[in-house]
Write the structure tokens for this entry.
Amino acid sequence: MRFRVGSKWCLILSVATVFAVGCAHADEETPIAPLAPMAGRVDPGLGPGTRALSSGPGYKGSPSWSPGGDRIAFTVDGYVVDKPTGSGDTVRWTTKDFIAVDTEWASEETLLILGAAPPAEAEKSAGSLDSLYRAHDGEDSLGLQRVGEEVLAIGPGRGGLIFALGSGPQESKLALARGNGEIYRPYTRHIAGRVAALSASPDDDEAVLAVRPPNDREISGLSVFDLRKGEGRQITRLEGNQEILGTPQWTQQGIYFVAGKKSTSLDSDGSEPLYYLYRVPPSGGAPESASGVGEDFVAATIRVSPDGKWLAVIGRLNPKAPTNLYVLDPLTEDFTAVTTNEDMEIKTGPDDLAWSPGGESVAIIARGTPSTEPEVRAEPADRLLRDFDNLYEIPVGGPEDAPR
């Protein structure tokens, strides 16, 4: 049986630290009165119809909807769990010493997990930090089966998964896995450079790859790989001190990606480097700024809808604006604000955004702006929402409707 995640009962929250405590001591001179329970409330800034998909403490990331849309998997402090999108308990898929980087559903019963094994198991490997593991629902243990070693990136494809493997210090290669997680097509053609991220085209016949070419001072480029012929080609590259952030997304109107100055250090004014949204045709060419989003828009995370028509974007209208969720229609260049958030901190990691299988909603991760004063909550820790990073489902409209 897989393990259900438990709870703790009382919390004191401060800016820097979260303490789990029991009942207050009798000799305390100035007890802090408990706040009213949130009872599942969601900040209105995340929009009408928003509902929480998780609760409680833990650093959450990499949401992934099951093919049927009734469950969502994600990482919590590095290990992997899943939870019904309706009601039900959270179920753990890995031991808590596992370090997951990304997770994707291969089928309704199988998760493929990219990450580092527990120390005892890692010592038996060939030295690769990140490997691809397979986990089946209903197994009697949390044991994982290694599918591949030195795996660089993974992405969903038709009936399974596409993943990139390192084949040397300056080369990569691709492989396909079936819905049960078994590799059925390892491509023999090598890719010059290390694949950092990948995603499939809307018809699943090709994949776009973010690649760091060899002997090129880590300049990022985009390549397209034909999954039928097993051949790839570079379609664009970034010059100078530029890098691609996250995973490029292939829409019906072209390939979009986020890029900017390398984030190895802060700018001269102490601010973080800014990243912007670009587009390039699948046939290749120089990147151009994405139309419709505005010249000052700062992008962070992007994901294409299952039908390839819409692009969900987390970012800011300008460097000083709050972070929100937007949807871009690449055909009409309409750019719609889905949230008008002022009080929630929306997480902007490269894998912290996911569309539901039907395209009616997306999952984001957010938390409330931390308070500068200690607070006491009178409800169980595993029911708290805005005090911690948690998953929220944001409705954006159906596949035949323009996002609202």
